[in-house]
Amino acid sequence: MRLSHSLIPTLKEIPAEAQISSHRLMLRAGLVRQMASGIYAWLPAGLRVLQNIETIVRAEQDAAGAQELLMPTIQSADLWRESGRYDAYGKEMLRITDRHERELLFGPTNEEMITAIMRDSVKSYRDLPQMLYHIQWKFRDEVRPRFGVLRGREFLMKDAYSFDLDYAGALLSYKKMLLAYMRTFQRLGVSAIPMRADTGQIGGDLSHEFHILASTGESGVFYDAAFETGDAFAASDLETFYAACTTTYAATDEKHDLEAWAKVPDERKREGRGIEVGQIFYFGKKYSETMGFAVTGPDGARIFPEMGSYGIGVSRLVGAIIEASHDEAGIIWPDAVAPFRAAILNLRQGDAATDAICESLHQTFGPACLYDDRTERAGVKFAEADLLGHPWQIIVGPRGAAAGTVELKRRATGARLELSVTDAVAKVPA
Ligand code: 5CA
Q1: Pairing mode, if any, of strands 306-313 and 269-284?
Q2: CB-based burial label for 182 (10 Å; 0-12, 13-18, 19+)
Q3: N or C end of the chain: which has fewer CB within 10 A?
Q4: DSSP H stretches of helix in 265-407
């Protein structure tokens, strides 16, 4: 992509409305713009990050055996009356009336809808277990939307739902999802810690939240240093992995257990703050029973499936990753989610040798790279490339170009190497 013809409206000033780094950086780097309180437009570079996260989330959901579908954002109030949550949900739910005076709502989550879909189509125990997910916009009329996309009103969530015949099956689904979540966060290039959690509006009695450590996180967290190295979790089989994750101490302040904490050796005790980027729930028959979803068992008896739901805050992750990975100069994207794999900085637009190398690099990388082809000063280009956080910068100036070399800069370390064009291309991962 050519920067001269791209909508990446960077800002030099620090936006006054933004209190934390990720929010400031998302505005300054031209990733998003607020359209109404807690409602954001995703500009091209921001959307690329969101889509990269979606791709990884989707791949790990598919690998865990979940099937993707797409449910609508608008739901009928009657569906929510069946579970009893229409009244219980309160002011966080955005309620809408259509021209026929029918009551609708903008979905804050989809337990009711997926249960209704299953109730229509699944009749026999032979059809279970099943796990379904979608990646769809949600709306929650938060009292205090803040910190940009971290606590928005409209936000993108991956939500999955499991249906099993018995508790053992439901627990297995829960374990598989916990493992899928840990793999997802690892692939995204961040470390997230699973913590025992309360179940709130969703209900049920087994739940974990996944937290990315960041000083600006909304939750206080207490955890065993074993989570920092991840050594205890290298175990390959599901049971060992789940046991290691869930017996090693980690809890948010809401669930902090002083007795269990006392047993963690002092040198391994860690306290900090975390951003919740996902939460998983086991809630048994709460929705299948209230909404009358049963399958016929082998002996003809009715079985109400055991359910769980599993959320990842896809749009929140964009802010959370930045919160965990930035410096004074700007964002430091993990390779897997960066909007562009590399940026090409042309330091002398109009110099034949410099232009030729830049054009050929632009050809080689295609739309995966951002080519700064503007007639700006070098200093401006360096600052914007650091702000946007490209993992690699390929810096092309007239002196090097004459000798057939370029400079390759790694954003995360600041390390610079002078290389031939071919060697520089080879160093940037595909
Ligand atoms: N139905 C369940 C699981 S599918 C559910 O709704 N869970 S949740 O309430 O925990 O939301 C899942 C994830 O969405 C959260 O972990 C968080 O990362 C994200 N999320 C929740 N509220 C917001 C918000 N206001 N802004 C941005 N992300 C949010």
Answers
A1: antiparallel
A2: buried
A3: C
A4: 286-290, 314-324, 352-365, 378-388, 398-403
Q: Which tokens in the block code for residue 200?
A: 């709130």
CA 345, CA 352: separation in Å to the nearest integer? Answer: 15
Total-model pTM: 0.96
Separation of CA 313 and ligand 1 centre (Å): 5
Contacts for 56 with CB less than 8 Å, ≥ 6 apart: 184, 187, 188, 336, 337
Residue nearest to atom 21 of ligand 1 (CA): 313
- 376 class by beta-carbon count within 10 Å (0-12 exposed, 13-18 middle, 19+ buried): middle
> Is 169 exposed, middle or buried (CB count within 10 Å of its CB: 0-12, 13-18, 19+)?
middle
**Whole-angstrom distance, CA of residue 189 vs CA of residue 410:** 16
Structure tokens at 170: 């439901």
Pick from 91-105, 121-135, 186-200, 264-278: least confident: 186-200
Annotate 262-286 with DSSP letters as a single string: HTS-GGGEEEEEEEEEEEEEEEETH
Alpha-helical runs (H) found in 42-99: 44-63, 77-83, 85-88
The CA-based dihedral angle spanning residues 13, 15, 16, 17, taken in that order and rounded to the nearest 10 degrees:
180
Distance separating alpha carbons of residues 141 and 38, to the nearest angstrom: 9
Measured from CB, residues less than 6 Å from any atom of ligand 1 are: 109, 111, 140, 142, 151-152, 155, 157, 159, 202, 276-279, 281, 309-311, 313, 315-316
Q: How far is the CA of 311 from the centre of ligand 1 (A)?
A: 6
Q: Which residues pair with 133 in a beta bridge?
A: 68, 160
Arithmetic mean of pLDDT, 30-39: 98
- Count of Cβ atoms closer than 10 Å to residue 175 Cβ: 18
Single-letter residue type at 326 = H
Mean pLDDT over residues 122-141, rounded? 98
Q: Residue 153 to residues 35, 156, 162, 314, 330: CA-CA distances in angstroms?
A: 11, 10, 26, 14, 26
Distance from Cα 278 to the centre of ligand 1, integer Å: 7
Check: CB of residue 179 under 8 Å from CB of residue 64: yes
Give mean pLDDT, residues 234-246: 85
